[in-house]
């Protein structure tokens, strides 16, 4: 059984917003959350990219990364991820090259090929949906822009050139796993919302991995929804917040962060319950002993090198307490 002390713990943040709250206070909560994670020794703090989703306020990903990096000391801050088909690679290289120049050695660039929005919003972003078909080429272009000048290309990322910002490929299917393996890049699987292909994707990535100047062996980070509290019972109660959010997502409703409830009975149909539970199939819920056991089992079964957790709890105090418990699990 692997020891949790040997596995880095990281966090994925969507800046979840309570209905009736403000964007300013929500982002202030995200900063305080990142600062507490920094104090406790978490490895990374990544921001997602989502658009036109009431209840999630992380649309301006690179802006938030700079803001949070400026108010923390040691934790790596990055994108989990930038949806590359939404952005010209040159712009991404300039933004993240600037961030790396401001906060040397602390910036990560995770890349995805999903829109991070619906089709109508994609068009509003001026997104050519065919660009997703060119994802592999655009990753290569971005690598070149962030690497040393070849002395030939007339287009250079200034700043960005030769910053060599670490690039990760993110995904929930076999495509990104295969591409990450081919390019010898680290791979992050989105188990926090799409657990279906987790075994096949990680196995494919490890099997087909080709060493590169970035990595000499595969490196897998697994996204997990985690709800940890002082007891199993309290964690189960707190987990109803994330269940209500996924239910809202399935229904096409706004994704406001809602208070936990004593029971979900009456809030969902049997079919909706099955869909939510499938969506959260890799969710880890419980007190310290339960969560430690589950994480060790997952790490052993999947050969995970690093965990990145979503921690969607209603009260900031509960989120911070969860960080303290997770930190204790690593140190004891």
From TrEMBL:
Domain Luciferase-like: 19-305
Keywords: Oxidoreductase
EC number: 1.-.-.-
Gene Ontology molecular-function annotations: oxidoreductase activity
Superkingdom as given in the UniProt entry: Bacteria
Signal peptide: none
InterPro entries, alphabetized: Bact_Lucif_Oxidored, CmoO-like, Luciferase-like_dom, Luciferase-like_sf
Keyword Oxidoreductase: yes
EC top class, as a word: oxidoreductase
NCBIfam families: oxido_grp_1
Family to which the UniProt record says this protein belongs: To bacterial alkanal monooxygenase alpha and beta chains.
Protein name per the record: LLM class flavin-dependent oxidoreductase
């Amino acid at each position: 059984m692997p020891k949790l002390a040997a596995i880095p713990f990281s966090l994925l943040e969507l800046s979840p917003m309570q209905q009736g709250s403000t964007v300013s206070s929500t982002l202030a909560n995200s900063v305080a959350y990142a600062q507490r994670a920094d104090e406790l020794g978490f490895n990374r703090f990544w921001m997602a990219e989502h658009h036109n989703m009431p209840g999630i306020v992380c649309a301006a990903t690179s802006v938030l990364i700079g803001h949070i990096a400026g108010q923390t000391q040691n934790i790596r801050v990055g994108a989990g991820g930038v949806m590359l088909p939404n952005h010209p690679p040159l712009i991404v290289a300039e933004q993240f090259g600037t961030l790396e120049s401001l906060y040397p050695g602390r910036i990560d660039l995770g890349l995805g090929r999903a829109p991070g929005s619906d089709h109508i919003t994609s068009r509003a972003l001026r997104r050519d949906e065919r660009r997703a078909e060119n994802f592999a080429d655009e990753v290569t272009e971005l690598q070149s822009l962030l690497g040393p000048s070849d002395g030939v290309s007339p287009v250079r990322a200034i700043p960005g050139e030769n910053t060599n910002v670490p690039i990760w490929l993110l995904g929930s299917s076999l495509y990104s796993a295969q591409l990450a393996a081919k390019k010898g890049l680290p791979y992050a699987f989105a188990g926090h919302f799409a657990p279906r292909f987790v075994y096949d994707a990680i196995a494919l990535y490890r099997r087909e991995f080709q060493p590169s100047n970035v990595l000499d062996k595969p490196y897998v980070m697994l996204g997990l929804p985690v709800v940890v509290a002082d007891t199993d019972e309290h964690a189960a109660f707190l987990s109803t917040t994330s269940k209500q959010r996924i239910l809202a997502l399935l229904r096409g409703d706004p994704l406001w962060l809602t208070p936990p409830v004593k029971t979900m009975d009456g809030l969902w149909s049997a079919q909706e319950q099955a869909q939510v539970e499938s969506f959260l199939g890799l969710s880890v819920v419980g007190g310290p002993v339960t969560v430690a056991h589950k994480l060790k089992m997952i790490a052993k079964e999947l050969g995970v090198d690093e965990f990145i957790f979503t921690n969607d709890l209603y009260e900031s105090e509960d989120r911070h307490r969860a960080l303290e418990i997770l930190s204790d699990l690593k140190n004891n």
